[in-house]
């Protein structure tokens, strides 16, 4: 018996959500009195793999093969299921990233495992059962889901679990499972990344703006605030529908659900569909010229005022502090 | 080209969600149900691909008789025929098994789902169906083009996109960008009444998980308002009190 965590790399590097998911999996392993192993697929430096030990992995299975260089969910699911079999892992933990979302159901189906997606805290352990709290109704509620199957797959939401350094080093082992040709039918033609920017789903601070900004030409005030805070940008649905911003920035019930430490909403009214996607933010700040805007009802802090005056002032104040 | 579109019947996005029976069941009283918004995108794309005699669109829903209004709306939008698997959709694993069982011997070239259902948000059904049928799946597509027997799909990734080429048959979960949602016109509404809607029995599926209870998010305390002229004060609060910057 053991717990297995999939350590997803981005262009050969591990990012913060990986350490979150390893910390989380380690805490599950502890509560089951067992050890944690990680599986990594693709080219990652040996030192980075061993460093997964400092978040609690005792071993890392490292899969490198020409065919598996790039993420193909079918093939990666086979590899993770093979790793789970090899280690007799009962619990497999995967980050609820875009790739993780494609991967988890395929892994679960291979293992005949119940799947709880988007966990927001540690599961309750009761004999052979794990009970997981996960988001439902697009952030309007949580569903407490019991996994009754022998094997279980859990995906963890970004920013839902803190990093826990245990200070160890993992044993790295090569792992070469055979992958069926049929699993490799998908071809990756291109990967386009708007690099060096914080990405929205796992950002700690999100600066978001709505129709109150009047038009795309005014977005620079939002961008400057985000830049000063090291934040990711987001927007309301009408803003992306109008083509002022890309769809990938649209948050809410029919967009991305975010759970940053700080969500700053500028010129957004706070419609129920928007709130659904941001309600698990730890702190919400609302800037709106209408004191009756519904967003104030769910905000922690608010400024009633004109965004075109308030936002540049805020940006200047942050820059001034940073400059000190 | 034969396309299967999986549609889910969900509470309208404006719904306030509450629970009954000791928080073990959603309170459906007074809720309006709609086609899951992402499934509307899938359906619109399927209709566009099939237009001009290029193919057929079948919609499938796993649900009890009450979902038929939603299914008829899909027919009115332009699907050719519909299937309802007569069972309460217990969870995504149950739903996916019904869909895979139905699709198994029908030679669909493309199976479309929405990216996620806005009630259970699992992003599970597409991957499960792909695995059960042993064909490729893409879970969060923002663009989809078909060229003969291959699909070119743009998939969302953190901070960017990935372009994939996948052989058909395949399962694709669609998000915004794949198609403009279509709405039924008068002719569609009239013709929907006579389009075939068959009801099939559900197969047995082992239970792997169950929802034991629901919770609502903790309500937030009252908002602390800061004067528009005092940006500094807001930063102090965020730094010293909320400790988020
Ligand atoms: C099926 C469906 C799904 C939806 N899903 C989503 C979703 O996922 N996400 C989402 O965001 N929406 C969603 N919506 C849309 C949602 O209902 C609202 O229409 C939308 O959130 C409103 O966007 P907004 O707040 O930017 O614009 P508005 O509602 O127009 O609000 C603009 C706000 O800006 C304020 N303002 C104006 N000028 C200034 C100024 N100078 N300074 C400061 N404040 C100013 C106004 O007081 C107002 O409160 C959905 C709708 C439907 C029907
Ligand atoms: N009861 C259902 N019947 C048919 N299709 C469904 C059903 N539930 C979910 N789906 C499909 O699966 C997609 C993803 O759902 P989920 O895995 O619950 O997020 C939805 O967008 C639908 O296309």
TrEMBL record, chain A:
The keyword Metal-binding does not apply. InterPro entries: DHS-like_NAD/FAD-binding_dom, ETF_a/b_N, ETF_a/FixB, ETF_asu_C, Rossmann-like_a/b/a_fold. Residues 3-196 form the Electron transfer flavoprotein alpha/beta-subunit N-terminal domain. Binds 1 FAD per dimer. Keywords: Electron transport, FAD, Flavoprotein, Transport. Signal peptide: none annotated. FAD binds at residues 211, 267-274, 288. One of its GO terms (biological process) is fatty acid beta-oxidation using acyl-CoA dehydrogenase. The keyword Flavoprotein applies. It holds the Pfam family ETF. GO terms for molecular function: electron transfer activity; flavin adenine dinucleotide binding. It comes from the Bacteria. Its cofactor is FAD. Belongs to the ETF alpha-subunit/FixB family. This is Electron transfer flavoprotein alpha subunit.
Automatic annotation (TrEMBL), chain B:
Residues 23-209 form the Electron transfer flavoprotein alpha/beta-subunit N-terminal domain. It comes from the Bacteria. SUPFAM superfamilies: Adenine nucleotide alpha hydrolases-like. Keywords: Electron transport, Transport. GO terms for molecular function: electron transfer activity. PANTHER family: ELECTRON TRANSFER FLAVOPROTEIN BETA-SUBUNIT. This is Electron transfer flavoprotein beta subunit. The lineage of its organism: Bacteria, Pseudomonadati, Bacteroidota, Sphingobacteriia, Sphingobacteriales.
């Amino acid at each position: 018996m053991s717990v297995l965590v999939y350590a997803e790399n981005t262009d050969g590097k591990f990012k913060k959500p990986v350490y979150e998911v390893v910390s989380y999996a380690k805490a599950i392993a502890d509560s089951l009195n067992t050890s944690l192993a990680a599986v990594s697929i693709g080219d990652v430096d040996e030192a980075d793999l061993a460093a997964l030990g400092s978040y609690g992995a005792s071993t890392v299975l490292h899969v490198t093969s020409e065919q598996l260089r790039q993420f193909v969910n079918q093939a990666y699911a086979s590899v993770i299921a093979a790793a789970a079999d090899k280690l007799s892992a009962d619990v497999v933990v995967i980050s609820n990233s875009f790739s993780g979302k494609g991967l988890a159901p395929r892994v679960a189906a291979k293992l005949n495992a119940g799947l709880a997606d988007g966990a927001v805290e540690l599961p309750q352990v009761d004999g052979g059962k794990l009970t997981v709290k996960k988001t439902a109704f697009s952030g309007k509620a949580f569903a407490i889901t019991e996994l009754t199957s022998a094997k279980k797959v859990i995906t963890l939401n970004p920013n839902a679990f803190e990093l826990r350094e245990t200070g160890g080093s993992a044993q790295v082992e090569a792992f070469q499972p055979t992958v069926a040709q049929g699993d490799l039918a998908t071809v990756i033609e291109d990967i386009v990344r708007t690099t060096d920017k914080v990405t929205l789903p796992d950002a700690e601070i999100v600066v978001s703006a709505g129709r109150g900004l009047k038009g795309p030409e005014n977005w620079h005030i939002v961008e400057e605030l985000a830049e000063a805070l090291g934040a990711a940008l987001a927007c309301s649905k009408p803003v992306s529908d109008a083509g002022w911003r890309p769809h990938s920035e649209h948050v809410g019930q029919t967009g991305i659900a975010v759970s940053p430490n700080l969500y700053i909403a500028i010129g957004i009214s706070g419609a129920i569909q928007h709130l659904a996607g941001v309600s698990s933010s730890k702190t919400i700040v609302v800037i709106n010229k209408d004191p009756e805007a519904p967003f104030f009802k769910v905000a922690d802090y608010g400024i009633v005022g004109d965004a075109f005056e308030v936002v540049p002032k805020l940006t200047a104040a942050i820059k001034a502090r940073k400059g000190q | 080209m034969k396309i299967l579109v999986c549609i889910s019947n969900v509470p309208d996005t404006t719904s306030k969600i509450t629970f009954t029976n000791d928080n073990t069941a959603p309170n459906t009283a007074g809720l309006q149900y709609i086609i899951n918004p992402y499934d509307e995108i899938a359906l619109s794309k399927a209709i566009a691909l099939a237009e001009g005699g290029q193919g057929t669109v079948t919609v499938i829903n796993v649900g009890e008789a009450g979902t038929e209004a939603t299914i008829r709306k899909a027919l009115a939008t332009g699907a050719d025929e519909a299937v309802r698997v007569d069972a309460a959709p217990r969870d995504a694993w149950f739903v996916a098994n019904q869909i895979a069982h139905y699709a198994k011997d029908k030679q669909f070239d493309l199976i479309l789902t929405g990216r996620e259902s806005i009630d259970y948000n699992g992003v599970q059904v597409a991957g499960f169906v792909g695995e059960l049928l042993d064909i490729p799946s893409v879970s969060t597509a923002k663009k989809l083009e078909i060229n003969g027997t291959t699909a070119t799909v743009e998939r969302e990734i953190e901070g960017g996109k990935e372009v994939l080429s996948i052989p058909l048959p395949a399962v694709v979960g669609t998000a915004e960008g794949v198609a403009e949602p279509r709405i039924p016109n008068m002719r569609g509404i009239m013709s929907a009444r006579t389009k075939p809607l068959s009801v099939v029995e559900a197969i047995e599926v082992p239970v792997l998980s169950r929802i034991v209870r629901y919770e609502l998010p903790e309500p937030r305390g009252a908002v602390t308002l800061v004067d528009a002229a005092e940006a500094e004060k807001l930063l102090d609060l965020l730094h010293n009190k909320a400790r988020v910057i």
